[in-house]
Amino acid sequence: MAPPANRRSGYSRRAQYTIFISYFAGVAGVLLGVVLLVVSFVQPSAFTGLRVLAADLTEPAGHVTATGRMASKDFFATVSGYFKAGSQHARLERELAIAKIRLVEARATAVENRRLKGLLGLAQQSPAPVVVTRLTSSTAASTRRYATLAAGADRGVQKGMPVRSEMGLLGRVLEVGQGSARVLLVTDSESVVPVRRASDGVPAFAQGTGDGTLRIRLINLGLNPLKKGDVLVTSGSGGLYRPGTPIAIVANILRDGATAQVIANPSDSDYVLVDRPFAPVPPPAITPIPDSQ
Amino acid sequence: MRLWPQFGTRRARINRTPSKIVARGTPWATVMLASLLPGLALIASAPVLPPFGFLMFISWRQLRPGLLPIWAGLPLGIFDDLFSGQPFGSAVLLFSAAAIALDMIEARLPWRNFLTEWLVAIGLIIVYTALGLALANLDGAATPLRVTWPQIVISILAYPLVGRFVALADRFRLTPFLEIR
């Protein structure tokens, strides 16, 4: 149906002006949205302060829901445990038998490692994490993959620090507030992590796709050596992520790489660890002394 | 003076009036809570939850067109942008544009039923999700379009439920519980 030709609300000037101004403000909202977008494209850090403040304010609520999330997960695990107890018991016994053999092998390897490292004069390289905390919220409705950490500058978190769970790498710190920090997850399409295959060190890049998988791009072109089930770990090049942190398992082989499933699912990680960046930030450039000519 | 309605059989019904704060503030508060909800509900590794803030916003505009003013997308969009992870300004633009589009559709389709409202909302949801993806990609991401299909389907199916909740909140809004002296 065509809209009515005369859209005047009545003879009251006051009512007419009110309606006009509300429409004017609606259009102004659209225009202001465009302006804000342009500002955030040109100057991505322009709204960091506001966002960080908002994250700090909602952080207590995030704590409550994080606790609830874990409790509900435990509840469902308990219920489903009753149904799967028998078959799971049998499977675990089988796995335990295998694991005992592997343990003996691993002990031998550890002894050998210690001996070789002693020969090389290397120290054990696993410093304590900066902080152990929780992920309180994430951007579940957006195509970007950010999460919020329940610790900020007050507990020593700094920009660029890698975040991992005990399973593997989760992401890195992007913005830091007083009591919270924003984490770019590895599944975001802007995140690129240098990786290598755990078994033989084939180098590659792992880029997020936004849907919980990673796109693995090989650095050396030619025959694709990846196989389904290969474990990828961080290679440490670029000096951000500590080498040897597990990140993904290859799921599908493509012509020039693969897609991989992330090992550390952020929704399953109860607590996460924030590490120091692998390589220290280089010192600032030396300023020339004025009268040293 | 009580500020909160008391439910149950013992509530006195006569000589009562709704609270102006609750009657005016409920739509704003529910949309803001809905903007917070997807973030707090789970730590997702893919966009799986519907944009509840947007769904709640268009649902209020459809159920009670005059209640949220047409410029409400500006403040509510700023609040949504703080938590959504989209580039700042994207919800301001899309909420405001959706309010104007709904107003124009309403002028052409003055009669309404469940199906037409749902169809209009489906159109808005698809456009909102696609433009949200486009704006995020302009900002430096490179997410393919196929990632958003599950979210679009979930949002479309969730919309009637959000409408149900809005109807519930609308009844709550006008519950008379303040005593008239």
UniProtKB/TrEMBL annotation, chain A:
It comes from the Bacteria. Keywords: Cell shape, Membrane, Transmembrane, Transmembrane helix. GO terms for cellular component: plasma membrane. The chain crosses the membrane at residues 20-42. GO terms for biological process: regulation of cell shape. Residues 139-273 form the Rod shape-determining protein MreC beta-barrel core domain. Involved in formation and maintenance of cell shape. Belongs to the MreC family. This is Cell shape-determining protein MreC.
